[in-house]
Amino acid sequence: MIGGAPAYAGVVETTLLADTHGRVASDLRVSLTDRCNLRCQYCMPAEGLDWLPDDTVLTDDEVVRLIRIGVERLGIREVRFTGGEPLVRRGLVDIVRRTHELDPAPEISLTTNALGLSRTAGALAAAGLDRVNVSLDTVRPESFAKITRRDRLHDVVAGLEAAHAAGLGPVKVNAVLLRDINDGEAPELLRWCLERGYQLRFIEQMPLDAQHGWTRGGMITAEEIFARLEGEFTLTPAEEPRGSAPAELFLVDGGPGTVGVIASVTRPFCGDCDRVRLTADGQVRNCLFAREESDLRAALRAGADDAELARRWVAAMATKLPGHGIDDPAFLQPSRPMSAIGG
Fold first, then answer.
1. What pLDDT, on the 0 to 100 scale, is given for residue 10?
2. pTM of the prediction?
3. What residue numbers bound the domain in which 270 lies?
4. Higher-confidence residue: 141 or 5?
5. Is 280 helix (H, G, I), strand (E, B) or coil?
6. Residue 313, class by beta-carbon neighbours within 10 Å (0-12 exposed, 13-18 middle, 19+ buried)?
7. What is the dihedral of CA 297, 298, 304, 305, to 10 degrees?
8. Distances (CA, A) of 149 to 10, 94, 222
9. Average pLDDT value for residue range 203-215
């Protein structure tokens, strides 16, 4: 058995993905690819990166098998597909459908840049996708092109509209403010989202860029975000409990519209973290900023059964540190960038 009571015939043995600090992971982030069709300044260089070799990336069947183990044996209740850009994964719709068919069916979401979402939103909704988080830092074409190095704002807007029409809601928008580029556009972006019924979340830039150029001094902090927004809006803390959600939520001008701020650096929420990550090449990461990973792919391809894979996953989570340690002078940025880790 993995833990707890012994297994009986016909009953799948379960345990929880607990660490030694009292946290339990029930939210699984699955990176389906490290490839992306944008080149955002805070993520990767203009020329792109060396992508993972195809034979190291989990197949569709392998992805679904590991998700099934997480859901059936390890208490996973939410699955979010990420990248890179998950829409470039050819098998995405089928992976979503097979995940939706698991028992119990997890909540399924997608973090995407929305390029191509206008063509796939309906199929994803029909397959069982519940909602989307779309990365959008600006609604000005010139700022978008400068940040992403692509002239594709119109495609993102079309993708957001398609997601809303397909019922993939609440549609959330994730934005990063960059100093001297779009940091003066926060009120404009919030107003644009409120008018369309999208839920905006500002995210502090994190030390996960491939270039390792992040500095705390260059980052727009949560306090700066609040200052920019409060110049035009009145923000009051939302009454609903935050729980393990990464965003602090605020009512805008008394509501019902809201805005969130995810201050991973200056207001860390590690003590309430309920997330675990699976990379596109089958590595378990128990923290976004972890320096070490645990390999499930090798065991899976060597013929390990579900119980053995579950045991390895449990062991990987047990070593999770109490916090990400960004404020520690000895902090080292993960060797893998965000595009290879998955958000």
1. 47
2. 0.90
3. 17-234+263-341
4. 141
5. coil
6. buried
7. 0
8. 54, 31, 26
9. 71
Amino acid at 24: V
If one counts the domains in the chain, the total is 1
- The CA-atom distances, in angstroms, between 276 and each of 19, 38, 144, 208, 326 are 11, 25, 31, 17, 19
What would the pLDDT profile of 38-53 be if each residue is shown by its tens digit?
999 888 888 877 788 9
Stretch 165-193: mean pLDDT, rounded?
96
**Which residue type occupies 271?**
G
Q: Does residue 8 carry a pLDDT above 70?
A: no
* 250 part of a folded domain: no
As beta bridge partners, residue 110 has: 81, 132
Residues 164-180, mean pLDDT to the nearest whole number: 96
Confidence at residue 12, expressed as pLDDT on a 0 to 100 scale:
66
- Of residues 268 and 51, which shows the higher confidence score? 51
pLDDT at 4: 43
Structure tokens at 104: 């119990």
- Check: CB of residue 27 under 8 Å from CB of residue 275: yes
- Is residue 248 domain-resident? no
Q: Are 120 and 155 in contact (CB under 8 A)?
A: no
Which of 233, 44, 60 is CA-nearest to residue 225?
A: 233
Distance between CA atoms of residues 149 and 45, nearest Å: 10
241 falls within a domain: no
Closest CA to 136 of 105, 116, 111, 103: 111
Q: Of 241, 139, 236, which Cα lies nearest the Cα of 190?
A: 139
Residue 71 lies in a domain: yes
Cβ atoms of residues 297 and 267 within 8 Å: no
CATH of the domain at 291: 3.20.20.70
Exposure letters 148-173 (e unless 16+ CB within 10 A, then b): bbbebbebbbbbbbbbbebebbebbb
Residues 6+ apart with CB under 8 A from 256: none
